[in-house]
C-alpha cells in the first residue's frame, strides 16, 4: 500500500511538472511570435520611411 501511494504521488508530481513546462513553453513561443511580428512591422515602417526620403 505504501509503495503504491509513493508511485501515485511521484506520477502526479511528474504530470504537474510536465504541464507546467508545457504552459511555460507555450508562453515563450507566443512571446517570440509577438516579437517577430513587432520586428516585421518595424522593418516595414523603416522601409517605407526610406522610400519617402528617397523620393524627396
Q: Would you tell me the overall average pLDDT? A: 89
Give the biggest beta sheet.
none
Question: Over the alpha carbons, how many angstroms does the gyration radius reach?
Answer: 24 Å
- What portion of residues belong to β-strands? under 5%
Give me the count of strands.
Answer: 0
Span of the ends, CA to CA: 83 Å
Helical percentage: over 70%
Contiguous helical run count? 1
Q: Which stretches are low in confidence, meaning pLDDT under 50 for 5 or more residues running?
A: none
Order of helix and strand elements from N to C terminus: H
> What is the global morphology?
rod-shaped
Structural class: mainly alpha
Could you walk me through the main structural features you see in this protein, from its secondary elements to its overall organization?
- The protein has 56 residues and is mostly helical.
- The protein has one helix spanning 2-55.
- The mean pLDDT is 89.
